[in-house]
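hey can u run this one w/ glutamic acid bound, need the structure tokens asap thx
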Amino acid sequence: MNDRKISDKQRIVIKLGTSTLAHKTGKLNIRRMTNLVRVISDLHNSGRDIIIVSSGAQGLGSGKLGLREKPKDIRMKQAVAAIGQCELMHIYDNMFEKYSITVAQILLTKMIINNPNHCANFKNTIESLMGLGVIPIVNENDAIAIDELELEIGENDSLSALVAQLAGADLLLILSDIDGLYSDDPRSNPDAERIMVVDEITPEIERIAGGAGTSLGTGGMTTKISAAKIATEAGIDMVIMNGRDPEKLYDLFEDKEIGTIFRANKK
Ligand code: GLU
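ok here u go:
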């Protein structure tokens, strides 16, 4: 039996991090984005339900204002996120339009996720959008949620796992700037090997994930393991793979050995 079967997945949440969407300068990676939107559109056209969880609001907002780096001050962060979220959706809308695909924006906060009524509304909206053949693009509502009141989820790895759970997805796909989970940090240990399948998130898995980080994103590998816990406990398989070459998504959906798969807990 193939224990990495992806080809039959039907509802997929794809998490795109800043390290995938932007250059190290913080400016949009146009080639990457163009290729990603093309391949995701093709997956959508093949009959799969796609939901995107996209970062980039703060990065693009800072870029639009000509700031050299993301602001540290909370109020400025929120302002920059409000500006960048608009820019982010403008870019997605234009790029998906080329393939006649409509996108929709949903912004979440921790408060919404913790509130059963709001959650029900979120699920209903997702179902309606899926029925309409629309790709929802979800982000945290940073203009509201970055504050001291603990309203924020803070990073989009966990957010994407929560979205996958609420949306009834059967696969969470996290695109990052690393090929998967390695037995050690591949940047410092050339003998580090990519782990193909994780059946259980053991303390050993958490330990090796603790050492590896990605350069630009908010989370690094630790938050991806938190996401994997949420997803697998909810019965959802999760894959971490490199977003550098979007064509590899075709290989993944042909059940080739791409990235690391965290297999759902069997209930
Ligand atoms: N919500 C943040 C943004 O759009 C990103 C959080 C993350 O990268 O995990 O800038």
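Residues 213-218 have pLDDT under 50 and may be disordered. anyway lmk if its weird
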